[in-house]
Amino acid sequence: MNVTLREVAEWIGGEVIGDRDMVILGTNPIHEAKSGDLTLLEDERLLKTFLNSSASAAVVAMNFPMNDPLKCKSLLRVQDPLMSFVSIIQHFNTRPTSPVQGIHPSAIIHPSAEIGEQVTIGPFVSIGENVKIGQNCQIHAGVSIGNNCELGHHVILYPHVVLYANCFLGNEVIIHANSVIGADGFGYRLSQGEHRKVPQLGRVEIADRVEIGACTTIDRATFGATRVGYGTKIDNLVMIGHNCNIGKHNLFVSQVGIAGSVTTGDYVVMAGQVGIADHLHIGSRSQLGAKCGVHKDVPSDQQMLGTPATPAREQMRIMSLLEKLPEIRRDVRKIKELIGLREETQEEIDSRELPVNRVA
């Protein structure tokens, strides 16, 4: 597709600075851009990279500084550069067509299931008793939907998604390949020397506009429901335990692990590999940095780092001190020498008898 920069600006309501009639051949990241490409320039620190690149123009924020060196490049100023660039890419690239509507002959559908209008059901799909599927849903190859599940309108289940019995999905829910919703929660009791399974009798409820990444698992409740709130977005390889109640518009990055009966407020962000102990509450708008280990409740509007998780400012001070430990160690040795204290050898430290933990 060949369009002018002015036409691109009309797609997204942007303002052109420079050559409005420049022909734009496509889009590319700044490090891969070629002549004729439009790129994204979100960070002023990449300005030099942009100027040295072959890109013909860049999408920038309205408040991006207009320096003299930029006169040799054209800019497209917008309110939200990232989302505008996404929209431009979608204009340039033909979006994948949806599967042909209808039911593949290899699909196995129980006679009691209710299938809405304009639904696509791919090959080797299995749909159980009393399932209800809304309108305009896409059920891709190999999906398994257990008994008594309900799906709203415009739901997309990508290949090999598994919904155990009694799962409820709202409208516009997207679940990516190989995710499992409604497996048994990890519930056991030690009895007579054995770990005996506690029956998991609850369900899972996913609200409207939730998106769940590939290979993610959300366990059914022991009793009642495990719930994920409206608009929450969950990355790949996330695990949510039984009886959790996740708020609205949460963001969970890959490899987050949430133990049973955790609750969160709205707009909570958990970065990669965050781990949450059971029966905790994470307050609204709190942000947990990568690899946070959370062992107690987190109030609203907190930024936490580290294991155990501590407020970000405190954790930054701790990290700063850790960097200085070798220097502190040297100073301690000098002080001991000055006051005549002998430094213990490593052999002496290792030879000390460690206290034995006793079970009360």
Shape: flat
The number of domains is 3
Examine the coordinates and then state which fold CATH places here, giving the name of the CATH topology of the largest domain.
UDP N-Acetylglucosamine Acyltransferase, domain 1
Strand order of the largest sheet: 8-11-14-17-20-25-28-31-34-37-39-40
The first-level CATH class of the largest domain is given as: Mainly Beta
Question: What this model shows, in words?
Answer:
The structure is a single chain. The chain is 16% helix and 28% strand. The protein is α/β, with parallel strands linked by helices. It has 3 domains: 3-92, 3-Layer(aba) Sandwich (Udp-n-acetylmuramoylalanyl-d-glutamate--2,6- Diaminopimelate Ligase, Chain: A, domain 1), CATH 3.40.1390; 102-313, UDP N-Acetylglucosamine Acyltransferase, domain 1 (3 Solenoid); 323-349. Strands 8-11-14-17-20-25-28-31-34-37-39-40 form a 12-stranded mixed sheet, with helices on one face. Strand 22 (188-191) and strand 23 form a beta hairpin.
Compact overview of the structure:
The chain is of the alpha/beta class and 360 residues long. It folds into three domains: 3-92, MurE/MurF, N-terminal domain (Udp-n-acetylmuramoylalanyl-d-glutamate--2,6- Diaminopimelate Ligase, Chain: A, domain 1), CATH 3.40.1390; 102-313, Hexapeptide repeat proteins (UDP N-Acetylglucosamine Acyltransferase, domain 1), CATH 2.160.10.10; 323-349. The chain is 16% helix and 28% strand.
